[in-house]
Protein backbone atom coordinates (compact mmCIF):
# COMPACT_ATOMS: atom_id res chain seq x y z
CA UNK A 1 0.00 0.00 0.00
CA UNK A 2 2.83 2.38 0.83
CA UNK A 3 4.46 1.87 -2.60
CA UNK A 4 1.26 2.83 -4.35
CA UNK A 5 0.90 5.96 -2.19
CA UNK A 6 4.42 7.09 -3.04
CA UNK A 7 3.92 6.31 -6.71
CA UNK A 8 0.62 8.22 -6.75
CA UNK A 9 2.15 11.18 -4.96
CA UNK A 10 5.13 11.19 -7.35
CA UNK A 11 2.80 11.13 -10.38
CA UNK A 12 0.66 13.96 -9.01
CA UNK A 13 3.74 16.02 -8.13
CA UNK A 14 5.25 15.37 -11.57
CA UNK A 15 2.06 16.49 -13.30
CA UNK A 16 1.90 19.65 -11.18
CA UNK A 17 5.55 20.50 -11.84
CA UNK A 18 5.06 19.97 -15.58
CA UNK A 19 1.97 22.19 -15.51
CA UNK A 20 3.86 24.89 -13.61
CA UNK A 21 6.81 24.67 -16.04
CA UNK A 22 4.49 25.06 -19.04
CA UNK A 23 2.42 27.77 -17.45
CA UNK A 24 5.34 30.07 -16.63
CA UNK A 25 7.14 29.68 -19.93
CA UNK A 26 6.14 32.94 -21.71
CA UNK A 27 8.57 35.77 -21.07
CA UNK A 28 7.77 39.29 -22.27
CA UNK A 29 10.52 41.86 -22.92
CA UNK A 30 10.01 45.63 -23.20
CA UNK A 31 11.93 48.85 -22.81
CA UNK A 32 11.27 49.90 -19.24
CA UNK A 33 10.97 53.62 -19.99
CA UNK A 34 10.48 55.61 -23.18
CA UNK A 35 10.63 59.40 -23.59
CA UNK A 36 8.93 60.94 -26.63
CA UNK A 37 8.24 64.47 -27.83
CA UNK A 38 4.69 65.84 -27.82
CA UNK A 39 3.00 65.45 -31.23
CA UNK A 40 5.33 62.70 -32.49
CA UNK A 41 4.76 58.97 -33.01
CA UNK A 42 6.38 56.34 -30.82
CA UNK A 43 6.92 52.62 -31.30
CA UNK A 44 6.37 50.68 -28.09
CA UNK A 45 8.52 47.60 -28.54
CA UNK A 46 7.41 44.32 -27.01
CA UNK A 47 8.93 40.93 -27.77
CA UNK A 48 8.34 37.54 -26.20
CA UNK A 49 9.90 34.13 -25.85
CA UNK A 50 8.01 30.90 -25.31
CA UNK A 51 8.96 27.28 -24.80
CA UNK A 52 6.17 26.35 -27.22
CA UNK A 53 5.99 27.18 -30.92
CA UNK A 54 3.77 30.13 -31.84
CA UNK A 55 0.22 28.78 -31.93
CA UNK A 56 -2.92 29.91 -33.74
CA UNK A 57 -4.30 30.76 -30.29
CA UNK A 58 -1.56 33.33 -29.54
CA UNK A 59 -3.11 36.49 -28.15
CA UNK A 60 -1.65 39.87 -27.24
CA UNK A 61 -3.23 42.50 -25.01
CA UNK A 62 -1.94 46.05 -24.71
CA UNK A 63 -3.42 48.14 -21.88
CA UNK A 64 -2.77 51.62 -20.49
CA UNK A 65 -2.67 52.92 -16.91
CA UNK A 66 -2.64 56.76 -16.83
CA UNK A 67 -0.34 58.54 -14.38
CA UNK A 68 -3.34 59.66 -12.32
CA UNK A 69 -3.98 55.92 -11.66
CA UNK A 70 -7.51 56.07 -13.05
CA UNK A 71 -8.96 52.92 -14.61
CA UNK A 72 -6.96 50.79 -17.04
CA UNK A 73 -7.83 51.38 -20.67
CA UNK A 74 -7.55 48.87 -23.51
CA UNK A 75 -5.12 49.97 -26.20
CA UNK A 76 -4.85 47.08 -28.64
CA UNK A 77 -5.67 43.39 -29.00
CA UNK A 78 -4.32 40.68 -31.27
CA UNK A 79 -5.77 37.21 -31.90
CA UNK A 80 -4.96 35.80 -35.36
CA UNK A 81 -5.15 39.40 -36.58
CA UNK A 82 -4.82 42.90 -35.06
CA UNK A 83 -7.90 44.57 -33.55
CA UNK A 84 -7.85 48.34 -33.03
CA UNK A 85 -9.82 49.76 -30.13
CA UNK A 86 -13.37 50.77 -31.16
CA UNK A 87 -13.39 53.71 -28.73
CA UNK A 88 -11.29 55.54 -26.17
CA UNK A 89 -8.25 57.81 -26.28
CA UNK A 90 -6.30 55.49 -28.60
CA UNK A 91 -9.03 55.03 -31.23
CA UNK A 92 -7.44 55.86 -34.63
CA UNK A 93 -4.09 56.51 -32.88
CA UNK A 94 -2.62 53.01 -32.54
CA UNK A 95 -1.20 50.71 -35.20
CA UNK A 96 0.08 47.14 -35.10
CA UNK A 97 3.83 47.09 -35.83
CA UNK A 98 4.64 43.54 -34.76
CA UNK A 99 5.70 40.38 -36.53
CA UNK A 100 4.43 37.22 -34.81
CA UNK A 101 6.92 35.02 -36.69
CA UNK A 102 9.74 37.04 -35.10
CA UNK A 103 8.08 37.06 -31.66
CA UNK A 104 7.52 40.80 -31.96
CA UNK A 105 4.18 42.22 -30.77
CA UNK A 106 5.02 45.94 -30.90
CA UNK A 107 2.62 48.81 -31.57
CA UNK A 108 2.94 52.45 -32.64
CA UNK A 109 1.10 55.25 -30.84
CA UNK A 110 0.44 58.26 -33.12
CA UNK A 111 0.33 61.96 -32.22
CA UNK A 112 1.46 61.63 -28.61
CA UNK A 113 -0.02 64.00 -26.06
CA UNK A 114 0.85 64.77 -22.43
CA UNK A 115 -2.30 62.87 -21.41
CA UNK A 116 -0.58 59.72 -22.77
CA UNK A 117 1.89 59.77 -19.86
CA UNK A 118 1.58 56.52 -17.98
CA UNK A 119 2.35 52.82 -18.10
CA UNK A 120 1.56 50.56 -21.03
CA UNK A 121 1.40 46.82 -20.39
CA UNK A 122 1.98 44.09 -22.95
CA UNK A 123 0.67 40.60 -22.15
CA UNK A 124 1.20 37.57 -24.39
CA UNK A 125 -0.43 34.14 -24.11
CA UNK A 126 0.71 31.33 -26.41
CA UNK A 127 -1.20 28.13 -25.77
CA UNK A 128 -0.25 26.03 -23.84
CA UNK A 129 1.89 28.83 -22.30
CA UNK A 130 -0.99 30.79 -20.84
CA UNK A 131 0.84 32.47 -17.97
CA UNK A 132 4.04 34.41 -17.80
CA UNK A 133 5.51 37.82 -17.30
CA UNK A 134 3.74 41.02 -18.28
CA UNK A 135 5.89 43.64 -19.96
CA UNK A 136 5.62 47.26 -18.82
CA UNK A 137 6.67 50.42 -20.64
CA UNK A 138 6.51 53.75 -18.84
CA UNK A 139 5.91 56.49 -21.41
CA UNK A 140 6.84 60.10 -20.71
CA UNK A 141 5.69 62.68 -23.24
CA UNK A 142 7.76 65.87 -23.06
CA UNK A 143 7.38 69.24 -24.77
CA UNK A 144 10.92 69.20 -26.16
CA UNK A 145 13.94 66.95 -26.03
CA UNK A 146 16.06 67.42 -22.92
CA UNK A 147 19.71 68.28 -23.37
CA UNK A 148 21.17 64.96 -22.32
CA UNK A 149 24.62 64.20 -20.98
CA UNK A 150 25.60 62.66 -24.33
CA UNK A 151 24.74 65.90 -26.14
CA UNK A 152 26.66 67.88 -23.55
CA UNK A 153 29.69 65.61 -23.97
CA UNK A 154 29.53 65.91 -27.77
CA UNK A 155 29.38 69.72 -27.55
CA UNK A 156 32.27 69.77 -25.06
CA UNK A 157 34.47 67.52 -27.23
CA UNK A 158 33.59 69.50 -30.36
CA UNK A 159 34.35 72.82 -28.64
CA UNK A 160 37.66 71.50 -27.29
CA UNK A 161 38.61 70.28 -30.78
CA UNK A 162 37.83 73.66 -32.35
CA UNK A 163 39.78 75.42 -29.60
CA UNK A 164 42.80 73.14 -30.19
CA UNK A 165 42.68 73.86 -33.94
CA UNK A 166 42.61 77.62 -33.24
CA UNK A 167 45.55 77.37 -30.80
CA UNK A 168 47.64 75.24 -33.19
CA UNK A 169 46.87 77.63 -36.08
CA UNK A 170 47.83 80.67 -33.93
CA UNK A 171 51.13 79.01 -32.91
CA UNK A 172 51.99 78.18 -36.54
CA UNK A 173 51.19 81.76 -37.68
CA UNK A 174 53.30 83.25 -34.84
CA UNK A 175 56.26 81.01 -35.71
CA UNK A 176 56.06 81.93 -39.39
CA UNK A 177 55.98 85.64 -38.56
CA UNK A 178 58.97 85.30 -36.24
CA UNK A 179 60.86 83.34 -38.91
CA UNK A 180 60.10 86.01 -41.52
CA UNK A 181 61.13 88.78 -39.13
CA UNK A 182 64.39 86.92 -38.33
CA UNK A 183 65.05 86.29 -42.03
CA UNK A 184 64.55 90.02 -42.76
CA UNK A 185 66.96 90.97 -39.95
CA UNK A 186 69.55 88.54 -41.29
CA UNK A 187 69.05 89.87 -44.82
CA UNK A 188 69.47 93.49 -43.66
CA UNK A 189 72.58 92.51 -41.64
CA UNK A 190 74.09 90.75 -44.67
CA UNK A 191 73.57 93.79 -46.91
CA UNK A 192 75.26 96.10 -44.41
From TrEMBL:
<dbReference type="GO" id="GO:0005886">
    <property type="term" value="C:plasma membrane"/>
</dbReference>
<keyword id="KW-1015">Disulfide bond</keyword>
<dbReference type="GO" id="GO:0098609">
    <property type="term" value="P:cell-cell adhesion"/>
</dbReference>
<feature type="domain" description="Ig-like">
    <location>
        <begin position="24"/>
        <end position="140"/>
    </location>
</feature>
<keyword id="KW-0812">Transmembrane</keyword>
<keyword id="KW-1133">Transmembrane helix</keyword>
<dbReference type="InterPro" id="IPR000920">
    <property type="entry name" value="Myelin_P0-rel"/>
</dbReference>
<keyword id="KW-0325">Glycoprotein</keyword>
<dbReference type="InterPro" id="IPR013106">
    <property type="entry name" value="Ig_V-set"/>
</dbReference>
<dbReference type="InterPro" id="IPR013783">
    <property type="entry name" value="Ig-like_fold"/>
</dbReference>
<dbReference type="InterPro" id="IPR003599">
    <property type="entry name" value="Ig_sub"/>
</dbReference>
<dbReference type="InterPro" id="IPR036179">
    <property type="entry name" value="Ig-like_dom_sf"/>
</dbReference>
<feature type="transmembrane region" description="Helical">
    <location>
        <begin position="150"/>
        <end position="174"/>
    </location>
</feature>
<keyword id="KW-0732">Signal</keyword>
<dbReference type="Pfam" id="PF07686">
    <property type="entry name" value="V-set"/>
</dbReference>
<comment type="similarity">
    <text>Belongs to the myelin P0 protein family.</text>
</comment>
<feature type="signal peptide">
    <location>
        <begin position="1"/>
        <end position="25"/>
    </location>
</feature>
<keyword id="KW-0472">Membrane</keyword>
<keyword id="KW-0393">Immunoglobulin domain</keyword>
<dbReference type="InterPro" id="IPR007110">
    <property type="entry name" value="Ig-like_dom"/>
</dbReference>
<protein>
    <submittedName>
        <fullName>MPZL2 protein</fullName>
    </submittedName>
</protein>
Amino acid sequence: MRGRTWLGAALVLGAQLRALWLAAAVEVHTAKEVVAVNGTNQRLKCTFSSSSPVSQQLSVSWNFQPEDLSAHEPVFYYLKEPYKPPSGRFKERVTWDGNIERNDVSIIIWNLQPSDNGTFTCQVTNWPDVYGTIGEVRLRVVQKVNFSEIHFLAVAIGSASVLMIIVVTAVIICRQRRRRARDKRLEVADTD
